[in-house]
Amino acid sequence: MQFGESLHVPVTHRAAGVVVLNGAGDILLVRERGLPGQMGKAGLWHIPSGTVENGENPQDTATREAWEEAGVRVRLNTFLGALLGRFPDGVLVLRHAWLAEPLEGSVFRPVLGHEVSEVRFVSEVEFGTLYATGKIRMYHTKLFYEEALRVRAAMRRQEAGA
Amino acid sequence: MQFGESLHVPVTHRAAGVVVLNGAGDILLVRERGLPGQMGKAGLWHIPSGTVENGENPQDTATREAWEEAGVRVRLNTFLGALLGRFPDGVLVLRHAWLAEPLEGSVFRPVLGHEVSEVRFVSEVEFGTLYATGKIRMYHTKLFYEEALRVRAAMRRQEAGA
User: Fold this and answer.
1) What is the signed CA dihedral for B54, B57, B63, B64, rounded to 10 degrees?
2) Which Pfam family is an annotated match for this chain, by its short name (chains A, B) (predicted)?
């Protein structure tokens, strides 16, 4: 039988972002100001990420948002996954993230300053505290960070063995 | 507010594969034999792809399946997307695909011959006919192929302008 169109589940809202780690395994986060109509996220931390625009490839979204929100020019390395979620109103959202490497030209401050108030590396321990106190915007950010640490550990094992 | 764990939608079944195009824009497809218990797919065509195993990165799945099913050594280029679907029993599945480039060492025949009976390039016109007659396994294959042609056209425009 053919798995036809009736078995397709359309997901109209997609987002994409980057996990950037430093040598200590800290993760680069941005703190949102919250635009008018989005005040529920004001003050919360997340990875540089945003909505995949119509016709945009999620990789290009991730690269664009890394620059706009965090002032980081990136090369996307490993795909960390696509995670499915719902907004509080029930609408499905698919979030993509890549483990990314900062390139020359990165300034590590928001380029679109009206959206982001702060950009900094957060340690694994501090991340745990921020998450537990509701200061990390999304559970998916936690899953992407955990996957990034796993991927990095595997890469280091491979390099050590090579 | 935090978009916490209650807004996460777990997808336990994931698949990943590759779209390989030739110069004419034909797509590389494999024809499945159908293993015992999977006879519903016998004789149908799909892209080289398969299940993401536990702990496996979808990129590695795509690369592995390209070799096992089609004898193609690939470099993954552009991410073509992650598409959500359901199996006929209602279980969610997330399918990932990359536009991939064949590398030296490719043999273009099944390496795991018990799963695949045939490997060949199919033109856009023939693909349309195969799809319309129910011979393409998945609607998602059609969407990935369309996206690959769009990505390739955009790359060519960029190269021509550069």
Assistant:
1) -20
2) NUDIX
Distance CA A64, CA A58 (A): 10
Q: How far apart are CA B14 and CA B82, in angstroms?
A: 10
Out of A10, A84, A136, whose CB is closest to B11? A84
Residue with tokens 């300034």: A107
Q: What is the pLDDT of residues A64-91, one digit of tens each?
A: 999 999 999 999 999 999 999 999 999 9
Q: C-alpha angle A3/A9/B69, rounded to 5°?
A: 45
In tens, the pLDDT along B74-99 reads 999 999 999 999 999 999 999 999 99
CATH assignment of the domain containing A46 = 3.90.79.10
The beta-carbon contacts of A65-68 under 8 Å, at least 24 apart in sequence, are A65/A16, A65/A17, A65/A18, A66/A17, A66/A18, A66/A20, A66/A100, A67/A111, A68/A110, A68/A111, A68/A112, A68/A115
A63: left (phi over 0), alpha (psi -120 to 50) or beta: alpha
∠ CA B92-B94-B95, nearest 5°, is: 135
Q: Please tell me the distance in Å from A66's CA to the nearest CA on chain B.
A: 18
User: Residue B78 sits in which domain range?
Assistant: 10-161
Alpha carbon of B18: minimum distance to chain A alpha carbons (Å): 14
Three-state secondary-structure class, residue B52? coil
Query: What is the spatial distance between Cα B59 and Cα B70, in angstroms, rounded to a whole number?
Result: 16
* Inside any domain, residue B21: yes
Domain assignment present for B1: no
Interface contact flag, B136 A78, Cβ < 8 Å: no
Residues of B in contact with A94 (CB under 8 A): 82, 84
Q: Does a structural domain hold residue A18?
A: yes
Q: How far apart are CA B82 and CA A95, in angstroms?
A: 10
Task: State the complex-level ipTM.
Answer: 0.91
Residue A53 belongs to some domain of the structure: yes
Q: Per the structure, how many domains does chain A have?
A: 1
